């Protein structure tokens, strides 16, 4: 990340960058948005979709994609169409993974889908910890899993 930062700063200062296309994902966004604010360079993102980014309120951040909250209605509609009444959200245990949960809960409630359990997996989980969580999920009667992932 340091190399990327130095390269971005060099380009902004020496090459008079007009705009930055990025970040590649929601987790990188706060840093890149801050860089855009400090350098007064617009950041145009096609892939930072977490609703948590709305709270950053930057005049230099332009999201060119729907945020993740727009997807929950579709997920909920699929569950409704198959008459599935229970689901387990699986998500990354951080502000980005957890940021979609309120929207997911609301959409599920509108379609009478109950969240039986929430499976939060840390970015720092070992393979054994992930395997244990998956084993726990396999023993549950709920068979509908809604996975929210972010690439790192």
UniProtKB/TrEMBL annotation:
One of its GO terms (molecular function) is G protein-coupled receptor activity. It comes from the Eukaryota. InterPro entries: ANF_lig-bd_rcpt, GPCR_3, Ionotropic_Glu_rcpt, Peripla_BP_I. One of its GO terms (cellular component) is membrane. It is found in: Membrane. Its main location: membrane. Residues 7-146 form the Receptor ligand binding region domain. It is a multi-pass membrane protein. Keywords: Glycoprotein, Membrane, Receptor, Transmembrane, Transmembrane helix. This is Receptor ligand binding region domain-containing protein. It comes from Brassica carinata.
């Amino acid at each position: 990340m340091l190399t990327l930062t130095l390269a971005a700063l060099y380009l902004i200062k020496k090459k008079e960058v007009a705009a930055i296309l990025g970040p590649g994902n929601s987790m990188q966004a706060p840093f890149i948005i801050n860089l855009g604010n400090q350098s007064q360079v617009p950041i145009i993102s096609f892939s930072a979709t977490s609703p948590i980014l709305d709270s950053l309120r930057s005049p230099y951040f332009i999201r060119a994609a729907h945020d993740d909250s727009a997807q929950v209605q579709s997920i909920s509609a699929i569950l409704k169409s198959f008459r599935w009444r229970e689901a387990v959200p699986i998500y990354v245990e951080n502000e980005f993974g957890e940021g979609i949960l309120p929207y997911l809960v609301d959409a599920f409630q509108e379609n009478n889908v109950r969240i039986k359990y929430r499976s939060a997996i840390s970015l720092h989980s070992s393979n054994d910890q992930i395997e244990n969580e998956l084993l726990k999920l396999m023993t549950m009667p709920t068979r509908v899993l809604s996975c929210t992932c972010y690439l790192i």
